[in-house]
Specification:
There is one protein chain. The protein is of the alpha/beta class. It has 11 helices and 8 strands. It has an 8-stranded parallel barrel, surrounded by 7 helices. The longest helix has 17 residues. It is globular, with a radius of gyration of 20 Å. It comes from Flavobacterium potami. Pathway: Cofactor biosynthesis; (R)-pantothenate biosynthesis; (R)-pantoate from 3-methyl-2-oxobutanoate: step 1/2. Its main location: cytoplasm.
């Protein structure tokens, strides 16, 4: 059953909670630069995530761990300058919040002041509870992230589906309820069984955004380079490619190179 969409001129954390209450699904995509963010925002996506996935797709690192706070602020400020409607959420990178709540607050304040972002996202549950509370007490909105948490890849040792066992599933539900209780406005669930994701979404009143978490949650997020097919080496089950830009761009760039070599470009109409 389709739900009538409210026309939000500007998406806020309150807008997302209203969307969940009204049964309207939430769209979320990553962006890391001005040009791409402008396109994503104009297309009507509700939330833009300046993800630490920039470490992979923008810088070519194997994991999200190497990206720094300064680099995240650079990417986030580029995105914010492009956006008129979407809510901009910025990942706190690895090492900027886990060890010390005061450090977590300092990192979050820098992101908010220097990038103009609207909220921050942190990976983890009760183990980072005090860091989240410290940030929230300063008036900074926080989005949680549970399930597969890429910043903990060396702890897990694999990017496989999380929370398939009962003990981990119960902890995930408890963590999601804790995140809501202390004041988070939403939570991302990554790569967990669809039935468990539905249980989480039904058990809390804040929006649950899924990536590889089935269709019964309140919204979906994908990495834009994956969704547009710019990255042809990553093909998890949850990914739907809406374009094959790798092929199209390779063809176009190859044609440009050939036209330059043959002196076909520029032609007479393309000169002054």
């Amino acid at each position: 059953m389709s739900v009538a969409k409210k026309d939000y001129k500007r998406i806020t954390t309150k807008s997302l909670i209203e969307m969940k209450s009204n049964g309207e699904k939430i769209s979320m995509l990553t962006a890391y630069d001005y040009t791409m963010a402008k396109i994503v925002d104009t297309a009507g996506v509700d939330v833009i995530l300046v993800g630490d996935s920039a470490s992979n797709v923008m810088a070519g690192h194997e994991t999200t761990l190497p990206i720094t706070l300064d680099q995240m602020i650079y990417h986030a400020s580029s995105v914010v300058r492009a956006v008129e409607r979407a809510l901009v959420v910025v990942d706190l990178p690895f090492g900027s919040y886990q060890s010390d709540p005061k450090e977590a607050l300092r990192s979050s304040i820098r992101i908010m002041k220097e990038s103009g972002g609207h909220a921050v996202k942190l990976e983890g549950g009760k183990e980072i509870k005090e860091s989240i509370k410290k940030i929230l007490h300063a008036g900074i909105p926080v989005m949680g992230h549970l399930g597969l948490t890429p910043q903990s890849i060396y702890k897990f040792g694999t990017y496989s589906v999380r929370a398939k066992e009962e003990e981990e599933a119960e902890k995930l539900i408890e963590d999601a309820q804790m995140l809501e209780k202390i004041g988070c406005f939403a939570v991302v669930l990554e790569k967990i069984p669809a039935d468990l994701a539905k249980k989480v979404a039904d058990s809390i009143s804040i929006p649950v955004i899924g990536i590889g978490a089935g269709g019964a949650v309140d919204g979906q997020v994908l990495v834009i380079h994956d969704m547009l097919g710019m990255n042809n080496e990553f093909s998890p089950r949850f990914l739907r490619r809406y374009l094959n830009l790798y092929e199209e761009m390779t063809k176009a760039i190859g044609q440009y190179a050939a036209d330059v070599k043959s002196s076909d470009f520029p032609n007479e109409k393309e000169q002054y």
